[in-house]
Amino acid sequence: MKSASRCNLGGPSRRSFFQIGGAASAALASGILSESFFALSARAASLPHGPFPKDAVIIDANENPLGPCSVAREAIAEITANSGRYQYWLTEHLTKQFATQEGLQPEYVRAFPGSGEPLHFTVLSFTSAARSYVTADPGYEAGMHAAKIAGARVVKTPLTPTFAHDVKAMVAAAPDAGLFYVCTPNNPTGTLTPHSDIEYLVEHKPRGSIVLVDEAYIHFSDATTALDLVKGDKDVIVLRTFSKIYGMAGLRCGLAIGRPDLLEKISGFSGWNSLPVTAVAAAITSLGDASLVPERKQVNAAVRADTLAFLDRSGYRYTPSASNCFMLDTKRPTKEIIDAMAARNVFIGRAWPVWPTHVRITVGTKAEMEKFQAAFREVMQAKPARIASPRSRDLWANLDGIRVPRKGSGGV
Ligand code: PLP
Fold it and tell me: What is the pTM of this model?
């Protein structure tokens, strides 16, 4: 890794982690929090925050261990020499290509560095002190954080017995709603909300509100897209990302798809900026790779089935996932399990306060999930014993179940 050492790519030191903490502290007041931050903050302070140890099993941030497909890697290599230029027309190429593939007009599609940005800006655009944010619980946390910045009431409704969003309860709980957030398949449960339920929301939502359908994980499943509602000019914005099945989380590319006037409203917060050309080139070629989605979907489904079969044999309960993550009931305090797994070099996902004994597990490669199984078996057979982490208490505060850096701790 000659070039890595020349560019000092060894990863952040403990000191620079605290600088990240400082930045996050500022972000709490006004900016975006996303999956990588939630994963990092859930890791015990006594555990590594820099590069993971060698051979670590990293299944704590819903990433795709396969990374970009081979044609995307070639496109990245090819464009690198010319990446001294902004090349904004490539972004237009990407949005037009997506629009053509999905049967949309190009002005219905806008590209961002990931889907976390449009998620955040959409919530800021449609919620306020007078218009609440409505979400499922457990659900992806980023929108709740944005709603708090907007001064909006956050309304959380439990999932149904089949782990879908309870759309009737969502509508009933929030006559003042500004935005209904539906993530399908859901992060963290991996479970689906039927298309008919999203239609119900569209038909019964209060005037002036919108439905934000987050399809970050849709390609892992057989779920029906909500893009037909966008085509029908409904009050719906759909989010897609290249971070999940396309394996591009570190490259940063995502899309917001909606009526042009809705996208225009988001632009009031997002402004306009260039995207990384490497990410756009990789996204364009990934969309052109017809075998990518079916192949990766099949690989994910096979490893997921194998992992769930192991959990069945071992007598554990989990959510019936159609995606690359699921919630696992450990029947024990989750912090203990997360730390004990990390001590075995297996980094599993976080817990949600509403389900205090569940942890989120991301489906990794077959080899990784075999290591997960061995470590989990060992941890669950051992006597419950806490791994003390006293510094953790000093460094982190609790924001609605999300651990965030405490002001004034270690440079924060
Ligand atoms: N939406 C959901 C449901 C997610 O789980 C994530 C990341 O994990 C995102 C959005 C944001 O991802 P990105 O900004 O990498 O596209």
Answer: 0.90
